[in-house]
Amino acid sequence: MSRSTRSLDWGFPRWRSYGTSRETAKVRLCDRHGCDEPGNCPAPKAPNSPERWYFCQRHAAEYNSKWDYFEGLEKAEAEERAGAEERTNSGYASAAYYGWSGSGDGSRSADEMRALEVLGLDADADFETVKKAWRARAKEVHPDVKPGDSEAAKHFQACQLAYEVLRQAEERREWRG
Predict the structure, then answer these.
(1) What is the DSSP string of 71-101?
(2) pLDDT value at position 99?
(3) pLDDT digits (tens, 9 = 90+) for 82-111
(4) Model's pTM, two decimal places?
(5) Cα separations in angstroms, 176 against 30, 107, 157, 162, 171
(6) Is residue 153 a contact partner of residue 160, using CB atoms and an 8 Å limit?
(7) Residues near 48 by beta carbon (within 8 Å), at least 6 away in sequence
(8) Which of 13, 68, 83, 117 has the fewest CB atoms within 10 Å around its CB?
(9) Nearest alpha-carbon partner for 42 in 34, 30, 52
(10) Burial label, 1 (beta-carbon count in 10 A; 0-12, 13-18, 19+)
C-alpha cells in the first residue's frame, strides 16, 4: 500500500493557482543604493560594454537623462546611427494611426500629411485651422479671381482635393469617437 502525500489542493476551490509552486520568486532589486524597488530596467555601465546596471524605472530615467548616446562618434557616424534608429522605430509611430492617439503624433495617414503640406499647415493642425487655411488659399488662387492662369487653377484643384481628404478624415474621427 502506498503512502499518501499531503496536498493543499484538496477539494474545491483550488487555493493555489495552477502551475505554481511554494518556492519564492526571485526579484532583482534596483542597483541604486538604498532603493527597494525591483530593478527590471537594464542600463549599460559603459558604452559598448556587455555589463549592465539594473535600475527601477525612476532611477533608469534619471540615469538615461545624463546618457549621451552619440558620445565619441564622428558627426557622419552619429547621423547614420540616428537614421538607423529612426528607421527601426518608425513602425511604432505608424501603429499609432489606428485610433489610440490624437493628431500630430502619428495618427494622421500619409495622404493627410500631404494634404496638410499643400495647405501649408503643421501636422498637429486642428480642423478649424484647416478650414481657415483652405478658405484663404481658395480666395488667392480661385479661377474666378485669376482667370486664364493655369498654375492657379492647378493649385486651386490641389487645395480642393487636400481639403476633401482632411474633411473626410475628420468625419471618420468624429464617427469613431
Answers:
(1) TT--HHHHHHHHHHHHHHHHHHHHHGGGTSS
(2) 47
(3) 888 777 766 655 555 554 444 445 577 888
(4) 0.41
(5) 43, 13, 29, 21, 9
(6) no
(7) none
(8) 13
(9) 52
(10) exposed
